[in-house]
Design goal:
Helix content is 15%, strand content 0%. The longest helix is centred in the last third of the chain and has 10 residues. 0% of the residues are buried.
C-alpha cells in the first residue's frame, strides 16, 4: 500500500536530512499524491497552513475547506 509522508519544521533552524538510494534524478524522483494540489497551484498555500497545525491521524482537508 502506498503511504505518503510530509515533514513540516515548526522550530526555526531545524534541518531534515533524508537518505535514499541513488543515483538521484530530479526529474524522475517525484511522485505526488493525486489528492494534493500540484506545485505552484493557488491552493497549495492552504495545504501548507493545514500541515502546520495537523495532528497525526487528521484527515486531509477538501480543497474547498482550506483556510
Amino acid at each position: 500500500a502506498h503511504a505518503w509522508h510530509s515533514v513540516v519544521s515548526l522550530t526555526p533552524g531545524t534541518i531534515l536530512f533524508e537518505i535514499k538510494p541513488g543515483p538521484y534524478s530530479p526529474i524522475e524522483d517525484k511522485e505526488f499524491a493525486a489528492w494534493a494540489p500540484p506545485e505552484g497551484d493557488p491552493l497549495a498555500p492552504g495545504w501548507v497552513r493545514w500541515f502546520e497545525t495537523a495532528k497525526p491521524g487528521d484527515p486531509t482537508p477538501a480543497s474547498s475547506n482550506l483556510p
